[in-house]
Amino acid sequence: MTDPEQTLREHLARLADEVATGAPLAQRARAGRRRRLRGRLGTAAVAVLVVAGAGAVTVPRPDGSGAPPSPGGATPAARAPDGASEVRGGYRLEVWRDLGVYVPATWGWGGAPGACGVFPTRGADGHRLGEGETVPGYVGRPVAQVPRCPKPQGGRPTVPYVWLGGHVPVGTVDLGGGWVQQTRSIGGMTVTVGSPDAHLRRSILTSAAVIPTGPCSTTLASPPTADEVSTGDSSAATFVPDRMTVCAYRPTGSGYQLVYRQDLDAGAAEALVAGVDAAPPAGEFSCVDASGGEWALLHLPGEDGGSRDYVVDLSCPSITDGTGLQHLLTPEDVVPWAVDGLNAVLDGNPLIDVPGVLIGG
Amino acid sequence: MDVRVSDRLRPVATPSFDDWVAVRGASLLRFAYLLTGSQSEAEDAVQGALERALASWPRVSRTEDPETYVRRMIVNQHISLWRRWRRRVIPVVEVRGTTPDPADEVAGREVVRNLCAGLPPAQRAAVVLRFYQDMDYREIAVLLGCAESTARSHVHRALQVLRRELAKKDRDD
Predict the structure, then answer these.
(1) Could you tell me if A160 and A200 are in contact, meaning their C-beta atoms sit under 8 angstroms apart?
(2) Which of A199, A325, B5, B15 is the least buried, fewest Cβ under 10 Å from its Cβ?
(3) ipTM score assigned to the predicted complex
(4) Neighbouring-strand partners of residue A313
(5) For A351, phi and psi rounded to 5 degrees?
(6) Is the entire prediction scored with pTM above 0.90?
(7) Are B73 and B89 in contact (CB under 8 A)?
(8) Could you list the mean pLDDT of each consecutive 10-residue stretch along chain A, which spans 361 residues?
(9) Strands A161-164 and A138-141
């Protein structure tokens, strides 16, 4: 009888020779890659959000329905059966510590009572607002937007707002001219909405809830650390990120607190990995104990079940990979994650030359 | 600032993506063809894997064996697609009827072709890796992401099916 192993060796080789090998593989791969990236960038540009539930936060998605968020962000009706949050047309989730609130996706970012600059400073795409430029509304956090507090202007607000964690007493204030400001306390944190639209105020306030923080710890006693979790199937060299969660921390008297959290897609994660790969090493000990300031933890789950963290010390400035090696911050390793509202909560560092992103406030 | 460049980050000469694909592309296509049994599916599988490799090329190109990484992507993609398809269709693991051909060589090739077509993708991948790529079971297990015993089992079952089919062919002859 014919030896089956020999038969396989012989005929597999002959079968393999049947295939035509003239396809322009490299060109097709590059074209396919460009298509994927364009698709992702296009998706991200339409700032409508999917909200991830346990562990994840905001993912821009096109939707266009424009419907307000349904009441009760933490109610079962607002959650998908698998625990992941559902799409809410035209709204995005904003996070302050472990407080989550849905706000219109077209709104920008700015400050809130408790720090200098209670006004919008960034547009919905994260760009710094120019002189006279306005936004449909904004999300404010008590994080300084300007180095010196301007004199209070008084008068009514000009655009609707949501303040997260603002130093505002709970209750309702009639601002005149139909404008009303309402403040609730949730989980020990305040949520304030100011608008002449009662339906909008109610919708936003009832969407507020304490949510799981996923890879972002709400508070840290010391700066975040970068971990790399490999599966049996992967290695550092073959890591393919699936997405990225950005956790932004600012110092408090006793440690660091989460001031912003956002999920970004695989395109941004891949760009970050490539950017860090290409960044010059800063030296393993060049920035030890340099920071008392701002930190970002970038958590990248991999396609194979592993994960990789990067930690950014904005006072150094450097980005540390999972092996503990520090790389210099460059436009290529900053631009992928320094997007949207992050630019309103981290000041960045003048040593990082990335115009319009973190740098220059 | 005292900057110390770590040895492990010192630049090393690595092939460009295009150069590497120019050299290894044909081999990858042959491998994918044996996994999928189709020219178009083979090209799609290789392209998908190369797109992923391109995204991380600075890292991938520094690995000891980039081809293993790309092959793994091809196998994973093929198995993943098959799993989705399996929800609708459960293939029977048996050799389908061979195409009659007077020439033994062609007949033998058809037996192997049909054997591969009837195998679940993980078994098929294990057979191709074992008898086309000449990998040992440890290497196959690593690439398939399974235990070495599972890799052996995949190959053993495929050989059982092939033995039956070859015995039948010998009887017919």
Answers:
(1) yes
(2) A199
(3) 0.78
(4) A295, A318
(5) -80, -15
(6) no
(7) no
(8) 81 87 85 67 33 29 35 32 40 90 92 92 88 93 84 83 96 92 93 94 90 86 74 62 91 88 91 90 54 82 83 80 80 86 78 47 36
(9) parallel
Question: What chain B residue is nearest to A283 in terms of C-alpha separation?
Answer: B4
The first and second tokens of residue A329, run together, are 């911050």
Q: Identify the bridge partners of residue A101 per DSSP, sorted by sequence position.
A: A94
A231-290 residues touching B, CB cutoff 8 A? 232-233, 235-240, 270, 273-274, 277-278, 280-286
Closest approach of B84 to chain A, Cα-based (Å) = 17
Which residues of chain A are within 8 Å of residue B167 when distances are taken between CB atoms?
A: 1
Residue B162 CB contacts under 8 Å (≥ 6 apart), including other chains:
A4, A7, A8, B95, B111, B112, B115
In eight-state DSSP terms, residue B172 is H
Beta strands in chain A (DSSP E): 49-51, 58-60, 91-96, 99-104, 108-111, 120-122, 138-141, 161-164, 171-176, 179-186, 189-195, 209-210, 219-220, 228-229, 244-251, 256-264, 295-301, 307-313, 318-320, 326-328
Domains of chain B, each with CATH number or no CATH: 16-90 (1.10.1740), 93-173 (1.10.10.10)
Residues 27..66 of A with a Cβ closer than 8 Å to B: which?
28-30, 32-33, 36
From the CB of residue A114, how many other CB atoms can be counted at a distance below 10 Å? 17
| Residues facing A163 on adjacent strands | A140, A192
Quote the minimal CA–CA distance from B7 to chain A in Å: 10
Domains of chain A, residue spans: 55-210, 219-345
